Amino acid sequence: MEAAASQAAWERSGGRLEEQEEEVDEYVVDPARTAKLLVSGGIAGALSRTATAPIDRLKMLLQIQEGRTPMTMRQGFKQMAAEGTMSAFFRGNGTNVVKIAPETAIKLTLNDVLKHAVVSDPDDITPAQRMLAGALAGGSAQALIYPLELVRTRLAVCPSGTYGGIFDCAGKVLRQEGVRAFYRGIVPSMIGILPYAGVDIAAFELLKERLLDEYDNHPPAHVILGAGMLSSSLAQFVSYPLALTRTRLQAQGVGGQAVRYTGMMDVLRRTFANEGFRGLYKGAGTNLCKLAPAAGISWFVFEETKLALGVDIWACAEELQPVFSEIDRLIAANVARTQRAFATARIGPHHFLGSTGYGHGDLGRGALDQIMADVMGMEAAAVRIQFVSGTHAIACALFGVLRPGDELLSVAGSPYDTLEEVIGVRGTPGSGSLAEHGVGYRVLPLAPGSGAIDWGALATAVKPETRMALLQRSCGYADRPTLSLEDIRRAVQVIKAQSPRVVVAVDNCYGEFTDTAEPGAVGADLCMGSLIKNPGGTLVPGGGYVAGKRHLVDAALARLTAPGIGSEAGAVNGETLRLMFQGLYAAPQTTGEALKGGRLAAAVMQGAGYGVTPASGACRPWSAITAIRLGSPHAMAAFASAVQASSPIGSYVTPTPGVTPGYADPVVFADGTFVAGSTSELGAEVTESMDFDIC
């Protein structure tokens, strides 16, 4: 009845939070981040185009020449040199800078905004979505600054003395040709910029992601330059005929000359008829000589300027306010259900007296078990300081249920490292693992690509000997998403449909209070966890819990103590018992604050150019673990040292790799916490086989 009521409550609250979650998915523009992107883009555009201004003018001179025998690059340079001064090579560059700086700034800033609009998590964006965001950003920027593009073109291609500068050119065009002249050629320009910007931005971002992995998040300058040149070259090939069309439309009508073309299609048709296919790419070689290095310089300056401007932590926190508000609603829901459990158990000061010896008749221990069962949506629970870790609690449950000839099925990939020796995957022979007791073991690999449960394989995974299916709710050290309660509910249904006798057990470590209910509310038979993680509220000095169907909890306790003793023994002193009550009551709040800290860490590290999982704006399923891909042993050591130095305990200590019981590889722990190993306090972990730190 309790589990059914809990499941119904979860379904109701889940529906409400799903509606609220849609509000969080709306991207809130952060003014500080926007300003940083605008400044970075403006500087990048101005520097890159000034560096390549002579080639840019040469390109336009070549583009406007008609006929089967085009002007050569050498002839173009001679024509500019014949004008007598060095400034001839930079004619139109002032306008170019005035035009390209805001265009680049707007394009790159809008691209960032649109990526968040296209998908809620920019880390999961597809190449097609990148192209869409880039195309829309480029098109919007081009439309806003197009009149400056026409002025720039006129200054660059007209004979010396035609115009006296930017304002003179703009005034004469307005007086002689009207407002519409400023938008001459905008149709081919817009059509051309959409594929160009989409391909350029998408290609560079994909190349950058690959390079970050290849060069430990710090690719050298020449590599970034090369990536920018390659992406722009590809984009130019796609869009160049339209750029040529735009330039010819903009250049016609100068000095009272006849307007030769009626529109975009007329330019394309006549160019192809009179000059052939090569005519559509007239000046492309020169443009490539200009555009490729300009784009490389632009991307490099943009990335370096962003880093130089730094990450504003307060701005990140402000941007995350919608996410923090959602976490506050989660905290409120979990505080309410915890309060109800305490009230139902009628807790009083007499429950904090504790016990000695065998611990028989300890009222506090029994009341704490009742509260944990209610909170977990289970029939029974055992909360014991005698569990030395979450691994110990899980091991007791496994050995309590499984018998020789049974099989343990790990549903969500391989379990946490410390369970490998319990199961018998590795470890010292003769240690009494499940394998040595004749228990079989099988892993259901995660779905390729997504890292999710392989639902197709799970549908036929249960065998006659399968007795327990183990689900690890948290990602742990695996590079996969955290399981949601909906994932667990679906897995329970799929498994039970094949064999109702299979016990579905959930490793709930790091998962408690990260949703409005626990695994018992969605049909799990058992769940286990540690009190130095979420449910201890950073106050409980040790211990763990097992919750589930009464006979399964009794079986786990028989392994913790002995058959015949089970739940009736286990002394605990009064002060520790009080902390166990107090920590459990505080756990919804401390877990929520830990979730906020993880989202803030993700936002700051994303802003610094590092990959994180889950992304800073990601919501349900909430994860108490934030994976930060630092890429190199040096960066990971520096990060761990920074965490340790920022901690209240042991700030003078330098974390170094060390052998830790249960782990196959040496582990670096940065955990200057009041409770050793507490994970709701700030900490970081990394093993030598990983490429990211865990916050």
Describe the global form. Answer: elongated
Distance between the termini: 38 Å
Give the overall pLDDT as a whole number: 83
Unreliable stretches covering 5 or more consecutive residues: 12-26
Give the number of domains: 3
**Per CATH, what is the topology of the largest domain?**
Mitochondrial carrier fold
β-sheet strand percentage: 5-15%
Strand order of the largest sheet: 1-7-6-5-4-2-3
CATH level-1 class of the largest domain: Mainly Alpha
CATH superfamily of the largest domain: Mitochondrial carrier domain
- Please tell me the CATH architecture of the largest domain by its name: Alpha/alpha barrel
- For the secondary structure, the number of strands is 12
Helical content, roughly? 40-55%
Question: Could you tell me the radius of gyration in angstroms?
Answer: 33 Å
Number of helices: 21
Structural class by SSE content: alpha/beta
Largest sheet properties: 7 strands, mixed
Subcellular location: Mitochondrion inner membrane
GO biological process, one term: transmembrane transport
Main location: mitochondrion
Solcar repeats: 32-117, 125-210, 219-308
Brief characterization of the structure:
With 695 residues, this protein is α/β, with parallel strands linked by helices. It is built from 21 helices and twelve strands.
